[in-house]
């Protein structure tokens, strides 16, 4: 079967064709009926004159409800006077393939007429909006481009297990499950397995897939199930190498997205393309705190990490001084970082956060690959080395210097499209109070 999509209808003018789609709008006038169909790619007008010959078609249209699906066969006319793409379908047959109930639980043409939680309850209807369709088309292209960058640069794609024995981040933030009588958890991160791949001699690896965080957080940028893009790179000289790769990777993905959908994005979402022509500025955590205090007269409560308002101010600083939508913050204190981050001579981590338009989207680092030092850092974090003996073995038989990063796809999309809540930037959102649909 060759399906004719509405976006390709200009190739079928003056032909007899069959179309399938949702009923988007009906105008039932005295002498004529107009039916607007959509199929997710475009819309088309179906015109049915009211006369004896069309009486059967007229009855079908009069009884139709919006959002029903129909199959329409007929002649596609080139009609310059028709406002909708200068064409119209003159039907010879209309088949109702499914009939919608007469009243929808939400208004799918105006999202502001329903509460967000109600729209999430009826996500399958909410996603029928054109802006949502475009959003996920863009996510498809972005994710494809990010994967394409990895492939072009000789990364191997891995698929790590999502059932794990131990936590990669913090045991308090995992979903515990019973695994045939043994306690296990859903994976917070592919971190350990990325490093295992490095130990196995895979020079560069990446993974795009789900991770799970049991954070009882109700913020606009947290979720309990996240689609993450992760990468790990061998034989690096410093964490600067990791930042170089991530910066190049993000610029490649953003440029590819705007090349395909830039006009539509800017028209629909009223956003500008991030500046990919400038280098992402890089400042230390200490410098960031000084800038916040001296330039913005703001001091956060945490001495070992950045707060949300601080991230916003630092992005404002990057935009004003460097014309960049991104900024790297480096050299975080060890207290705020995992045990496997490498430390410098001053005891600061060889790590970074990447901030994008006011929100942290990445934590990256050079990893500690030396077995004895890694064990000592675990003890400093009050982690018993024997609790992660399988992980420590990765470093007991030689392991290259390496580093990597992880990025939540939804967070990138939120910031690219100026979406104010991760619930809107996720196909099906999972949070502490949402397990449906």
Q: Supply the helix-strand structural class.
A: alpha+beta
Strand content: 25-35%
CATH topology of the largest domain: BirA Bifunctional Protein, domain 2
Helix content: 25-40%
Give the biggest beta sheet: 8 strands, mixed
The count of domains is 2
Query: At the first level of CATH, what is the class of the largest domain?
Result: Alpha Beta
The oligomerization state is single chain
Q: What's the name of the CATH homologous superfamily of the largest domain?
A: Bira Bifunctional Protein, Domain 2
What's the helix-strand series?
Answer: EEEHEEHHHEEEEHEEHEHHEEEHHEH
Give the overall shape.
Answer: elongated
Level-2 CATH architecture of the largest domain: 2-Layer Sandwich
Low-confidence stretches: none
Please write out the topology.
Blueprint: E1 16-28, E2 32-38, E3 43-49, H1 55-63, E4 69-78, E5 87-98, H2 116-121, H3 123-126, H4 130-152, E6 156-157, E7 163-164, E8 176-179, E9 182-186, H5 191-199, E10 204-212, E11 225-234, H6 239-269, E12 282-284, H7 285-296, H8 308-322, E13 326-330, E14 351-356, E15 359-366, H9 371-380, H10 389-392, E16 402-408, H11 409-417
Parallel strand pairs: 6-10, 12-13
Antiparallel strand pairs: 1-2, 1-4, 2-3, 4-5, 7-9, 8-9, 10-11, 11-16, 13-14, 14-15, 15-16
Helix pairs in contact: 4-6
């Amino acid at each position: 079967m060759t399906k004719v999509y509405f976006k390709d209808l200009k190739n079928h003018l003056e032909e007899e064709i069959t179309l399938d789609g949702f009923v988007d709008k009906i105008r039932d006038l005295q002498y004529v009926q107009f039916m607007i169909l959509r199929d997710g790619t475009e819309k088309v007008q179906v015109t049915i004159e009211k006369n004896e010959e069309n009486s059967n078609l007229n009855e079908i249209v009069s009884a139709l409800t919006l959002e029903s699906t129909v199959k329409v066969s007929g002649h596609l006319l080139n009609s310059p006077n028709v406002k909708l793409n200068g064409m119209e379908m003159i039907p010879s047959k209309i088949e109702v393939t499914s009939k919608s109930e007469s009243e929808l639980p939400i208004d799918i043409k105006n999202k502001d007429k329903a509460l967000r939680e109600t729209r999430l309850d009826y996500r399958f209807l909410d996603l029928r909006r054109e802006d949502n369709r475009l959003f996920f088309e863009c996510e498809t292209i972005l994710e494809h481009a990010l994967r394409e960058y990895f492939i072009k640069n000789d990364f191997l794609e891995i698929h790590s297990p999502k059932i794990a024995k131990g936590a990669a981040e913090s045991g308090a933030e995992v979903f515990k499950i019973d695994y045939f009588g043994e306690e296990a958890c859903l994976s917070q991160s592919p971190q350990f397995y990325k490093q295992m791949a490095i130990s196995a001699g895979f020079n560069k690896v990446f993974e795009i897939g789900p991770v799970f965080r049991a954070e009882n957080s109700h913020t606009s940028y947290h979720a309990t199930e996240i689609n993450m893009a992760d990468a790990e790179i061998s034989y690096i000289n410093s964490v600067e190498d990791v930042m170089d790769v991530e910066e190049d990777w993000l610029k490649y993905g953003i440029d590819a997205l705007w090349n395909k959908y830039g006009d539509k994005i800017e028209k629909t979402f009223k956003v500008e393309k991030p500046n990919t022509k400038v280098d992402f500025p890089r400042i230390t955590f200490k410098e960031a705190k000084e800038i916040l205090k001296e330039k913005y007269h703001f001091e956060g409560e945490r001495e070992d990490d950045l707060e949300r308002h601080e991230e916003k101010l630092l992005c404002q600083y990057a935009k004003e001084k460097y014309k960049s939508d991104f900024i790297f913050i480096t050299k975080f204190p060890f207290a705020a970082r995992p045990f496997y981050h490498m430390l410098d001579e001053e005891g600061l981590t060889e790590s970074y956060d990447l901030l994008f338009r006011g929100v942290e989207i990445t934590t990256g680092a050079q990893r500690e690959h030396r077995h004895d030092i890694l064990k000592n850092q675990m003890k400093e974090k009050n982690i018993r080395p024997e609790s992660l003996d399988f992980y420590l073995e990765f470093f007991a038989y030689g392991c290259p210097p390496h580093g990597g990063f992880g990025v939540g796809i939804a967070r990138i999309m939120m910031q690219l499209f100026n979406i104010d809540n991760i619930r809107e930037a996720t196909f099906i959102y999972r949070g502490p109070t949402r397990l449906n649909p």
